[in-house]
Write a structure and sequence with these properties.
single chain; 268 residues; mainly alpha; 3-stranded mixed β-sheet; 3 strands
Length: 268
């Protein structure tokens, strides 16, 4: 069984460092790692914990500052995408050690989860995120963000809302990829760009979008996301012996940046 290493917030990509290792041994990933349709998806907090040892990176420069509490926009599919992107923002804020942003994100996670019918399941997590941020307990924040994501996905499964759960995951991947490409593009290296090589993960999301209910596919924001995924696919789905170019990194960053703006804006 072929396994693609997708370091993501189900899927948030891993942080970039000056000299990334040539290979990360999938067999040594934490026990929380999950396999989804042949795609290896490590739990984000565990991955960041390993990569922290390689030194700090300028994550503060790629943050999208949140002023106040994020308010839900649009209907359920768009809110699900927003929730995923906000959770991803939480991991970026942790990397930047920005406790104020983490606290705003904790409140925002609860505010977005509530209209999706899963607010009760994440209420304690939201408070725990805030408490850990006050203590600057960054490992604790990561674990609570992991837990919030897991609670949301389980609760949505219980409500037969797997499609919305997948949109939460996709929103997180888009925001994480935007941040990753910004850092890679700032100081391009072939090894850094290789972290974007996730064709199986893209195909997973592409298939899930194609199989959404017609009422979800009709959502304008979902339509833009679907097109964006198709546009990204050839940029990261190169053969294993072909490098992802600096131009491709910039193009991916532009696509994901536009998608995040759409996800967080009122549809026309």
């Amino acid at each position: 069984m072929k396994k693609a290493l997708a370091l993501a917030l189900v899927a948030l990509p891993v942080c970039v460092f000056a000299e990334p290792p040539a290979h990360i041994d999938v067999s040594k990933l934490p026990s929380q790692t999950k396999l989804i349709d042949d795609v290896v998806v490590p739990v984000p907090s565990e991955i960041f914990g390993v990569l922290d040892k390689l030194g700090k990176q300028p994550w503060a420069s790629v943050q999208r500052p949140i002023n106040g509490v994020v308010q839900p926009i649009g209907d359920a599919p768009q809110i699900a995408l927003m929730l995923g992107s906000v959770i991803a923002e939480g991991f970026i804020a942790v990397e930047a050690e920005d406790s104020n942003q983490v606290k705003q994100i904790g409140k925002s996670v609860l505010n977005l989860a509530t209209p999706l019918g899963v607010g009760a399941e994440v209420k304690k997590r939201a408070q725990a995120i805030t408490d850990a941020a006050d203590k600057k307990d960054w490992n604790g924040v990561r674990k609570e963000l992991d837990g919030a994501l897991d609670d949301v996905k389980k609760a949505m499964g219980n409500l037969n809302s797997e499609a919305l759960s997948q949109l939460v995951s996709l929103g997180g991947w888009i925001r994480g990829t935007e941040a990753l490409t910004a850092v890679v593009g700032h100081s391009y290296t072939k090894d850094g760009a290789e972290l974007l090589h996730q064709p199986m993960l893209i195909d997973y999301f592409k298939g899930r979008l194609a199989n959404l209910k017609p009422k979800y596919r009709a959502n304008p924001v979902v339509g833009r996301v679907q097109k964006g995924i198709l546009d990204i696919r050839p940029l990261i789905g190169l053969a294993d012996d072909v490098d992802i170019s600096e131009k491709s990194v910039q193009e991916i960053n532009g696509i994901t940046s536009d998608l995040i703006k759409s996800i967080n804006s009122k549809a026309p």
